[in-house]
Structure formats: structure tokens, C-alpha cells
TrEMBL record:
Residues 273-815 form the TonB-dependent receptor-like beta-barrel domain. Keywords: Cell outer membrane, Ion transport, Iron, Iron transport, Membrane, Receptor, Signal, TonB box, Transmembrane, Transmembrane beta strand, Transport. This is TonB-dependent receptor. Its main location: membrane. Residues 48-156 form the TonB-dependent receptor plug domain. Belongs to the TonB-dependent receptor family. It is a multi-pass membrane protein. It is found in: Cell outer membrane. The keyword Transferase does not apply. The lineage of its organism: Bacteria, Pseudomonadati, Pseudomonadota, Alphaproteobacteria, Sphingomonadales. It comes from the Bacteria. PANTHER family: FERRICHROME IRON RECEPTOR-RELATED, TONB-DEPENDENT OUTER MEMBRANE RECEPTOR. It comes from Parasphingorhabdus flavimaris. Residues 1-23 form the signal peptide.
Length: 852
């Protein structure tokens, strides 16, 4: 057995679970031995086409020709995958078959796991750097449970890079494109001794921004990133191989363009104070008071040891990584100086995986493994009050515009006097909030599979995974604005009783009719004028955790399994069917929006503490003014998938067809509410679908590919969403049809060895609502005016490859300059305003490459 192929196969088998395999963009010239993808799902060397796994593959040559540099662009050739970038360079969401979680909150474990050379990248910020020397990228659809140490309930993106070679070689590449895009990358590999090889690769990517911050004369959505990596490969004996990898990457960019999709009632106040904001939903002009800062440092190393002991092979992968993520952004997205957010995050991750794989001649083979994960997260963040925030809110509170502009006392001065607060303090503290969050996560799992082949071509597979996960977290916040410290219902009661009632005990001691009368008056806006100020209490006091009631811990464990049968009907046709379960542990709301659960605390009407019923938090004396219940964490996700399929391969034609029914109970939903994020479990979300792909090779040098995914999603149960009861609704943001198709023609110039490769590809997402509504904007409109998105992207490339190793070519992405909104959200503290992220414009460039 070829040991390098077997070890590559074993590494892949550690992240595969169920269903049919389909290869995306495997071109004719890529069918020689070095590019045949080997897997060992049945503990035998088989090609991808012969093996019953659910994986689409984009080859390194396709990545080169199409200028796909990171996973953000990968969705254009993989219809089951969606990737969207959010408000910073480091925040992206990966979605497979309609399931995925945002990366705005580092306490949320991703439903789609990203792996690079077998090492789990726990945050998308650690997976976005440009990767030179990629051999292939595999997208695995559905829950990856058995044979996979760190479980992912929706799927996996696995990036496989080339290992060092014992023959000297390498490549250098230079790209120049529009927006002054300059990309330089290269790699070199070769032997150091007879049994030690090395490789070094790196990349630098710089581009002007395609958006402009007009008032600050600064560009936005630029590129400024670099990456470097070194590898050593030791092969002291034919049976032992050790691969060591060390890498460092840095991003320092200005991101991301946000436009005003709907200008709400607050827009007039911004303009009255001299502020500006974007007015074209697809435009690239922005108006900010702060140039965004996005800095990401991502580094680490891994050691993989493979030992072949004949019928048994052993694999160990050890890794340690650190991630530093800093961003500063203007969160109101206008030139008015209202508020800015700073977030400084650090993540340290240690992983260890062991596997033993059999290669017996008999009908039974197995894989058994163990996985350990240890991660620590820390975050220091704050919201700064801008110099114009008080004037802005004065206008919204009904202040006289002339007085506000002139700087004369107005609404808030009266409020301060009425509530006994120091004059000129509301919204005039330097900080609105300061936060300190931390989390330690340790987990281990034991996993394995057994394959039984009673007759040639018929294989039964059973697999299991047991995961034990522990999270310990601590959150603290200081809220500095004095208005947020006062409950407006309780304050009215204090005033109405002339100070006779100042505590909950005093209120509860009143006769019941007196309590009811006071509470009725205090919650009636026609009687209690203070209630109008509730909209300005953005950041009330925060209940620090751990505390006497909440221990700041989650403890989860789960046994998941796989049952699969596959049968080779003939040399050309295979059929299979599988049932698999998946699991993802609890996620923690590491944000200022973390609130005790309703089991621990229930506020009274209007957030009153005086009228709050007895609860563990209140009885322990921990209740704070304006404390509300919400979500400290979301419970585990439990996935199941039924899948059947057929695939065939003939001369010049191959196809793969899969039908699946996938369900996630307790899907962890993170929704932005306009002033914060709500983390909660959906009762159950499901999707039925079809995946189809085909490759047609009608003549030498010409290859057509066509891949399509059809999805029919449903909220089977989601009673407690921020939009109300969504049970029975269709989850938004999931296109019914996603299509990726390409045509590639390789023209060889006689027997010279020179050839011209021309490629064009098209990706389409059918028109679909972006979301199920916005908690603030749509709440007043009965969830009408839902914004939609349709995607039609055409990309092309042409490359002349010469026999002497020189290559020259050109590329274009988004040839037709298709425009759409990737997502929309409620304007921050601007009720009625809707903001959105516009898609990227057309990009193009020229490439010069030399391989030696």
C-alpha cells in the first residue's frame, strides 16, 4: 500500500460521516495519480468517486485558475455552502445545507467546523488568511460525528495543503488587479537530507478599498494581509512519517461597508446635527466618525505522526494555536459622533488527536480514536459615548432643536433634576459600558467505526462518538450611564409615595390594593411621564457571573452514532443509504446581552424590582435595577440525517445524486435586536433536500460540471424567537435552489507541452428572504417588508501554461457586476432604520506564475 496515500486517506476519514461523495471541478488533466483523492471510509484505498461519503472537492488547480484565495469565495463553486462576511474582517458565517452560526460572539461554538491540515480552527477569524500551496478544499455536508473528534452538527470545511517533497521545486506568483490589488506568493520545497524535507511558503495581499468613507477621505473594504508558513517532513524509516507545521498570518484592514437600506425616523435628527449617512443600498460611499480598525494575528503549530505497523496504522496530531482579534468600529454608521465599539479578544487552543486504523484482509476493519480540546477565551470590550450622543438623544426625546443646537439645557437636564442625578451626566460619561469576559472550554471524545463486508461490494458500517464537554465562564460589566441605573416604574412609585417606599420589601408590605393601584399608575404612560425614557436605557446594570445563583458552568455529554450500507451494483454504479446523528455542545453568550434565565429571575411589570415575583436571583439579594431575563447560554444542538444516494461513473460522464432529510433539535440562534444579541435555542429546525452534481467530458480537453442543491427548510418548532412564534415558518436566508456550473477547455499546442486553459463558471442562488424579519423594524410592521436576495455570479479565467514552467493569465470575478445585499440588520439605537451589507463589485486582474 502507498503509505502517503493511505495517511492522507486516514486524515480525511477522520472527518467524514455519511452519504454520497461528489467531486466538484475535478478536471480531466487532474486525473493522474498525484491528484486522485484517496479515502478509506471502508478501510481500503478507494477513489472519491467510489466511496460513500458526503464531500465536494475543489482542487488546487481550480483555486489557482479562479483566483479563489480563501473560504469566502469558495461558495461560488460549492452550492451547499454559503459564506458571508459581517461587520469586521474577522467575522464570517459558514452555512451548510442552511445550518450555521454567526461569528459575532466568541462564546458560540460553530456548527460548521473549519480544519486546516487536520487542525480545528475554532473561530472563523483563524481560518480566513490567504493560503498558498493548497492541494484541495473539501466541504463535508451534514453532521460529522463518528470518526471525527471535534463534532460539528452542520458540516465541515477541510483545507488540505501540500506536504514537503523530496524533490526540489516550488513556485512564485504575482497578481495585479483593479483597485490596485497586488498579490505576491510563493513556495519552495526540497530535501535537507535523504529522509528530511522542508517547505516554506508565504503570501502578501494588498488592495485599495472599493468603498470610500467620504467625510474622512479614507478607503474601506481594502485588503492588507500576509501569511507565512514553514514545514518539515521526517521519514526516518519507510513506516514512520512526522510532519511539523508552523505558521503566522496577520490581517490589518478597514472593514466593512454598511449602507442605509431604510432611513428611519431617527435619520432627521442625524441630519439636523450635521451628520450624514449612505443613502444607496448598493452603494460604496460611507460616512463615519471613526475609521474602522480590524487587526487579526493568528499563529500556531502542529505535529502529525503517522506510523504504519502492517495491518495497523497509528496517527497522532498535536496542535497549539493563538488568535488575537482587535476591532474598533463606528456602530451607528453615520458621520455623527454617537458611539463607537472596541473589542479586544484572545483565544488559545490546544488539541490532541490519536487514531488507530486497521487494514486487514478479512471482511472486518475498524478505526478507533480519541480527541482532546482545550481552549481559553478572553475579551475586553467597551462602548464609547460620542461627543454628539446626548444631543442626538435629546432630539429623539422631544428636545427643542434650537436649544439642542445652541447647547442650552433641555430634556435630559430636566430628567436629571427630577431624578436627583447630577447635572450634565446622562450620556456624558466617557464610556457607556466596559466589559470583561472569559471562558475555558475542555472537551474530549472517543470515536470509531467498524466496516463489515460479507460479500464483495456490500459494506455495512457502524460508527460511534462519545463527547464530554465542559465550559467555565465569567462575565462582568460596568454600566456608567446614570439613567440606565434607575427603573422608571420603581422611581415613579418612590415619588408617588413621597419616599415612603424605596425598597421592594417596603412595597411588598403594602396592602395588595395599594400595590395594585401604584403599579397600575406606574405602568400607565399617560400617568407616568418617565416611561418615555425607557428607550434610552440601552445598557442597564449587569449581573456578574458566577454568582450565588449561577455557577458559570455548562456540562454536556452525548453519544452519537452512524449506520450506513453501501453496495457496488456494478463497476460503474454505487448505491448507499445512511442514518447519522450529530451533536454540538452548549454555547455561551459572551456579551453584554447575557441575562439570567427566566428560571433564575423574572422582572416585574416594566422591569420593576419592587413588583418582581420571588426568584432565586431576587431572593439571594442579587437583583439590579432594570435586570431582565434572557439567555446566558444556549443548550446543545442534536442533529439527525437520513440520506440515500446513487452515483455512477462512465467514460466521459459521471454523476452523484443524494436525497436527505436533516434535523437539528435546539439549533442555536443568534439574532441582533438593534441594541444587542439574543442567543436562544430553536425547538427544531429541519431541511429536506437534493444534492446533484455531474461531470461531462465530451471530448479531450473539454470538461463541463453542473452541481445543484435544492433545500426545503422548516421551523418545526421555534416558539420563543425574538420575532415571536416562528413554528411552521420557512427559515429565511436559505435559497431554495443553489447552482454551480462551469466549463473548462484545455487546448494543447501540438506536442509542445504548452496549453491554454479557459474557464468560466456561474453560481446562482434563487430569490429568497434574507431573514424572517427584523426585531425592531418589522415588529411595528407585522413582519412585512422582508428584504430578499438573489445571487447570479459569473467568473472567468484564462491561463497559458508553458512547458518551461511559466504561466500567464487573467481572471475576472463577478463579471456582470451583480449587486445584492448579503444581509440586513436593525440600525443600532435607531428604531425604524435598516442597515445592510452590499455585495462586492467586479474584480479582475492579471497573473504571472513560474513553477520549478
Amino acid at each position: 500500500m502507498n503509505i502517503s496515500k493511505f495517511l492522507a486517506a486516514t486524515a480525511l476519514s477522520g472527518v467524514i460521516a455519511t452519504a454520497p461523495a461528489y467531486a466538484q471541478d475535478v478536471q480531466q488533466e487532474e486525473t493522474f495519480d498525484d491528484n486522485v483523492i484517496i479515502v478509506t471510509a471502508s478501510k481500503r484505498e478507494t477513489t472519491l468517486q467510489e466511496t460513500p461519503i458526503s464531500v465536494s472537492v475543489t482542487t488546487g488547480e481550480t483555486l489557482e485558475n479562479a483566483q479563489i484565495r480563501d473560504v469566502l469565495d469558495l461558495q461560488s463553486v460549492t452550492p451547499s455552502l454559503r459564506v458571508s462576511q459581517l461587520q469586521t474582517s474577522s467575522a464570517s458565517t459558514f452555512i451548510i445545507r442552511g445550518f450555521g452560526n454567526g461569528d459575532n460572539n466568541f462564546g458560540i461554538e460553530p456548527s460548521v467546523g473549519v480544519f486546516i491540515d487536520g487542525v480545528f480552527r475554532s473561530r472563523s477569524a483563524a481560518a480566513l488568511s490567504d493560503l498558498p500551496n493548497v492541494q484541495r478544499i473539501e466541504v463535508l455536508n451534514g453532521p460529522q460525528s463518528t470518526l471525527f473528534g471535534k463534532n460539528a452538527s452542520a458540516g465541515v470545511i477541510s483545507v488540505v495543503t501540500r506536504e514537503p517533497q523530496f524533490e526540489f521545486g516550488g513556485a512564485v506568483e504575482a497578481v495585479y488587479g483593479n483597485y490596485n490589488n497586488v498579490v505576491v506568493k510563493g513556495d519552495i520545497t526540497g530535501p535537507l537530507t535523504d529522509n528530511i524535507a522542508f517547505s516554506v511558503d508565504g503570501s502578501y495581499n494588498r488592495r485599495d478599498g472599493y468603498a470610500d468613507i467620504v467625510n474622512l477621505n479614507e478607503e474601506q473594504n481594502n485588503r492588507n494581509r500576509w501569511a507565512a508558513r514553514g514545514q518539515l517532513l521526517f521519514e526516518p524509516t519507510p513506516d514512520l512519517k512526522i510532519r511539523a507545521i508552523g505558521d503566522y498570518s496577520r490581517i490589518d484592514e478597514i472593514c466593512c461597508q454598511v449602507t442605509t437600506v431604510v432611513a428611519g425616523p431617527t435619520a432627521g435628527a442625524i441630519q439636523l446635527l450635521g451628520g450624514q449617512f449612505s443613502t444607496d443600498r448598493f452603494g460604496y460611499d460611507a460616512y463615519l466618525n471613526q475609521v474602522p480598525i480590524n487587526k487579526v494575528d493568528n499563529y500556531g503549530g502542529s505535529i502529525q505522526v503517522d506510523y504504519d505497523a502492517g495491518p495497523l496504522s497509528f496517527t497522532s496530531i498535536s496542535s497549539y494555536r493563538e488568535l488575537k482579534n482587535l476591532f474598533v468600529s463606528d456602530i451607528d454608521y453615520s458621520s455623527l459622533d454617537i458611539a463607537n465599539e472596541t473589542r479586544n479578544q484572545k483565544v488559545k487552543t490546544l488539541t490532541q488527536e490519536f487514531r488507530v486504523t486497521s487494514d486487514f484482509d478479512g471482511p472486518v476493519n475498524f478505526l478507533l480514536g480519541g480527541y482532546y480540546f482545550d481552549e481559553s477565551i478572553s475579551q475586553i470590550s467597551q462602548i464609547e459615548n460620542g461627543t454628539q450622543i446626548r444631543d442626538f438623544f435629546e432630539l429623539l426625546a422631544g428636545g427643542n432643536p434650537a436649544d439642542v443646537i445652541a447647547g442650552n439645557p433641555s430634556v435630559f437636564n430636566g430628567v436629571e433634576a427630577g431624578l436627583g442625578l447630577q447635572q450634565e451626566t446622562i450620556f456624558l460619561t466617557p464610556l457607556l459600558t466596559a466589559e470583561q469576559f472569559s471562558m475555558d472550554n475542555t472537551s474530549y471524545s472517543i470515536f470509531g467505526t467498524v466496516d463489515f463486508e460479507p460479500v464483495d461490494g456490500l459494506v455495512f458500517t457502524g460508527g460511534f462518538n462519545y463527547t464530554d464537554d465542559k465550559k467555565d465562564f465569567a462575565l462582568a460589566q460596568q454600566s456608567f450611564d446614570p439613567l440606565g441605573q434607575i427603573n422608571l416604574v420603581d422611581a415613579f412609585i418612590v415619588g408617588a409615595t413621597a419616599g415612603a417606599v424605596t425598597t421592594r420589601d417596603q412595597f411588598q408590605a403594602l396592602p395588595a390594593p395599594n400595590q395594585a393601584a401604584l403599579l397600575a399608575a406606574a405602568t400607565d404612560p399617560t400617568v407616568n411621564p418617565l416611561l418615555g425614557l425607557a428607550a434610552f436605557q440601552f445598557q442597564p446594570p449587569f449581573l456578574t457571573i458566577p454568582n450565588a445563583v449561577e455557577d458559570g458552568k455548562t456540562r454536556d455529554d452525548k453519544f452519537t452514532y452512524l449506520l450506513r450500507a453501501s453496495y457496488r451494483v456494478s463497476e460503474e454504479v454505487n448505491v448507499y443509504g445512511s442514518y447519522a446523528t450529530g451533536f454540538k455542545a452548549s454555547s455561551v453568550n459572551l456579551s453584554r446581552d447575557s441575562r439570567p434565565s427566566s428560571a433564575d429571575f423574572v422582572a416585574g411589570p416594566g422591569g420593576s424590582t419592587f413588583a418582581a415575583p420571588s426568584s432565586p436571583v431576587l431572593d439571594a439579594g442579587l437583583a439590579l435595577p432594570n435586570l431582565s431575563s434572557g439567555s446566558r447560554f444556549a443548550g446543545p444542538e442534536n442533529a439527525t440525517v437520513y440520506e440515500v444516494g446513487v452515483k455512477g461513473q462512465w467514460e466521459g460522464f459521471g454523476f452523484n445524486l443524494a436525497l436527505f432529510d436533516q434535523t437539528i433539535k435546539g439549533f442555536q440562534s443568534l439574532a441582533f435586536t438593534g441594541t444587542g444579541f439574543a442567543l436562544q435555542n430553536a425547538g427544531q429546525q429541519s431541511v429536506k433536500g437534493i444534492e446533484f452534481d455531474s461531470t461531462i467530458n465530451p471530448t479531450d480537453g473539454l470538461v463541463f460540471t453542473f452541481a445543484m442543491t435544492y433545500l426545503d427548510p422548516l421551523f418545526d418548532s421555534f416558539t420563543g424567537s425574538v420575532l415571536g412564534d416562528l413554528t411552521g415558518a420557512t427559515p429565511a436566508g436559505i435559497p431554495e435552489f443553489a447552482i454551480s456550473t462551469s466549463a473548462t477547455y484545455s487546448h494543447e499546442f501540438g506536442g509542445s507541452g504548452n496549453k491554454l486553459i479557459t474557464r468560466i463558471d456561474y453560481s446562482h442562488e434563487s430569490n429568497t428572504p434574507i431573514n424572517n424579519g427584523l426585531p425592531t423594524y418589522n415588529a411595528a410592521l407585522g413582519n412585512t417588508q422582508i428584504f430578499s436576495r438573489e445571487v447570479n455570479l459569473v467568473n472567468g479565467s484564462m491561463t497559458l501554461k508553458l512547458e518551461n514552467g511559466f504561466e500567464v493569465g487573467g481572471y475576472v470575478r463577478n463579471l456582470l457586476n451583480d449587486q445584492f445585499l448579503t444581509t440586513v440588520f436593525d440600525g443600532v439605537a435607531q428604531a425604524g432604520t435598516v442597515s445592510g451589507y452590499p455585495s462586492a463589485p467586479r474584480t479582475y486582474g492579471a497573473v504571472v506564475r513560474y513553477k520549478f
